[in-house]
Design brief:
Largest interface: A-B, 26 and 40 residues
Order of helices and strands of chain B: EEEEEEEEEHEEHEEEEEEEEEEE
Strand order of the largest sheet of chain A: 2-3-4-1-5
CATH architecture of one domain in chain A: 3-Layer(aba) Sandwich
Helix content of chain A: 25-40%
Number of helices of chain B: 2
Structural class of chain B: mainly beta
Strand content of chain B: over 45%
Oligomer: heterodimer
Number of strands of chain A: 5
CATH architecture of the largest domain in chain B: Sandwich
Number of domains of chain B: 3
Shape of chain B: flat
Number of helices of chain A: 7
Shape of chain A: elongated
Order of helices and strands of chain A: HEHEEHEHEHHH
Number of strands of chain B: 22
Chain lengths: ~200, ~350
């Protein structure tokens, strides 16, 4: 039911031909599915270090690459923890927030995994003692944002027919306002989509 | 193209169901390639969506069996479930609860084909009734669904303890450096002022209530019934024994609802809040009070017919509370809340 209205008489977001607000929180599997990112090739013995400010998509990149890499492992190091829970590390491994790991577990990661992809807020290249390629996530161009927004909307699509869309002019306005801070941009679009009454060209 | 396609057809359109009603339909499997299915299951489940991390519950599951399918085949399987009491479908601003029938074919060494159909679990109509205080006698109450445990909130003592430890920690390590050679260390002083402001923000309501209680004593609140139903009137009783003489300008009770959604994890963990409609009722106007003479007040608060039912899962909640505020003349106000559960219907 609506918070201050009447009991729902239609399925969620059916008036927009959607199943949910496309810019709400997604679970890791969904985030990986809708991610727009370049293909990643990691050579044997190489470490790829993904860096960037909060909200730039480090976790989404890792989840999506992990989903696209058979027999790979993934671990997110939660706040307050400095240990790696994965005991038997596979040859291809994705580790998120690794700057939280203690030196011993960092060494284990760098020594045991053949193709390692890490997301980190601190440059760990000096500790790796093997080749490290650093990818810095910054900047957001119009094509990439268009891909992100349309994938999100399509993932929420209910059925055939029109769904809300954003013109390139609207997307450019979003980039001017939020820069590459995708998290803030999505929070804004969440509110915009909450107020839409029908599928239309969305004004931001 | 997947090895097989699943399609769910419910036997009701629009798919609106009430608690206790039967949801039935058929699952159609169209086979594209030779395919072994270890388990074909149909789930009845609810899931949240919105600003918070997704929570889900699966109250019922039907296992249709394991199969060896050959291309070109078309199979139909009937299923049926009984809708539970809740949580009822809810479309709020940051919290949504929706129900689904979801089918999944467990195909070894392949992505499992899935199908999903959403439906609505609508609450039974609310009945307008007077509060229990006016009821002639007991009545039968439908078994409500379990809403879930309340979130534990830090007591004022815990908050004060945390703030004192934080300030003591700062002063222990940096106190001696706040002033160097008779002149203040601007950076550390600035940081200390920010820390004090932060502490004051955390403790403001507790400090204000502590001061107010020195005047009017402990405020006790009771609601009747303790668990409310949409459309019902709630009798609120508040009483206190003043510690000194004085005057209240006004005492009033507010029914306050809020959606709470938590997104992300670790450092990205964020709590989002969205206020729902508030209903207010006055308990008394300007009134003098004298030391040790109890004041006992009451009023009725109506729970709106369309109030969002209480809901609590891991990272998504709809919470209701009755807040009593005492506006004391020339003294800090007292504000105290009791949480209540609002059920969609009885």
């Amino acid at each position: 039911m609506r918070c201050n209205g009447t009991a729902p008489i239609t399925l969620a977001f059916a008036h927009l031909n959607l199943r949910f607000n496309p810019f709400g929180e997604l679970d890791p599997e969904e985030r990986a599915r809708v991610a727009v990112l370049p293909p990643l090739e990691v050579r044997s013995g190489e470490v790829v270090q993904v860096m960037g400010e909060a909200g730039r998509g480090k976790t989404t990149h890792l989840l999506a690459w992990h989903a696209a890499t058979p027999a790979s492992g993934y671990e997110y190091v939660p706040e307050g923890s400095d240990r790696l829970r994965t005991r038997d590390l596979p040859t291809v491994f994705f580790a998120d927030e690794v700057q939280r790991l203690c030196r011993r577990d960092l060494d284990r990661l760098f020594c045991s995994v053949d193709r390692l992809v890490i997301a980190t807020h601190a440059d760990l290249a000096p500790l790796a003692r093997r080749p490290v390629r650093t990818l810095v996530l910054e900047g957001l161009d119009l094509d990439k944002l268009e891909g992100i927004v349309s994938r999100r909307i399509e993932a929420a699509r209910r059925g055939a027919g029109p769904v809300p869309s954003l013109s390139r002019a609207s997307l450019a306005a979003l980039i001017r306002r939020f820069g590459d801070d995708l998290r803030s941009l999505e929070a804004h679009l969440y509110e915009v989509f909450q107020s839409l009454e029908e599928p239309c060209d969305v004004e931001v | 193209m997947s090895k097989c396609d699943l399609t769910i057809t419910l036997d009701r359109d629009p798919p609106h169901y009430a608690p206790g009603e039967k949801v039935s339909g058929k699952l159609t499997v169209g086979v594209n390639e030779p395919c072994r299915c270890d388990a074909l299951t149909v789930d009845l489940l609810w899931r949240t969506h919105g600003k918070g991390n997704k929570d889900a519950g699966t109250p019922d599951r039907e296992l249709l069996g394991g199969f060896d399918w050959t291309p070109g085949e078309m199979h139909e399987h009937a299923f049926s479930f009984t809708m539970p009491q809740g949580p009822v479908s809810y479309h709020g601003h940051i919290v949504n609860v929706d129900w689904y029938v979801e089918a999944r074919a467990d195909v070894p060494w392949a992505i499992d084909p899935k199908a999903q159909q959403d439906l609505l679990l609508l609450p039974l109509p609310a009945r307008s009734e007077a509060s229990a205080a006016y009821r002639a006698g007991p009545r039968r109450v439908a078994q409500p669904h379990v809403i879930g445990d309340r979130v534990r909130k830090d007591s004022p003592k815990v908050k004060i303890f945390v703030v004192v430890i934080m300030l003591a920690f700062f002063l222990f390590f940096f106190g001696s450096q706040l002033v160097i050679d008779g002149s203040p260390n601007v950076i550390l002083m600035g940081f200390f002022v920010v820390l004090l402001g932060f502490s004051a923000k955390i403790l403001w309501s507790d400090v204000r209530n502590f001061a107010a209680k020195q005047k009017v004593g402990e405020l006790k609140i009771e609601t009747e019934p303790a668990e409310a139903t949409r459309g019902e009137s709630l009798r609120v009783r508040a009483w206190f024994v003043p510690r000194s003489e004085g005057r209240v300008k006004r005492v009033w009770a507010t029914l306050r609802g809020e959606e709470v959604a938590i997104s992300g994890s670790g450092t990205n963990r964020t709590t989002h809040r969205h206020k729902l409609e508030e209903g207010e009722s006055e308990m008394c106007g300007s009134m003098a009070f004298v030391r040790e003479q109890p004041i006992d007040l009451s009023c009725d608060l109506r729970v709106p017919d369309d109030a969002a039912p209480s809901f609590r899962s891991g990272d998504n909640r709809v919470e209701w509370s009755v807040v009593v505020q005492v506006d004391i003349e020339g003294w800090p106000d007292l504000e105290q809340a009791v949480e209540i559960d609002v059920y969609p219907s009885r």
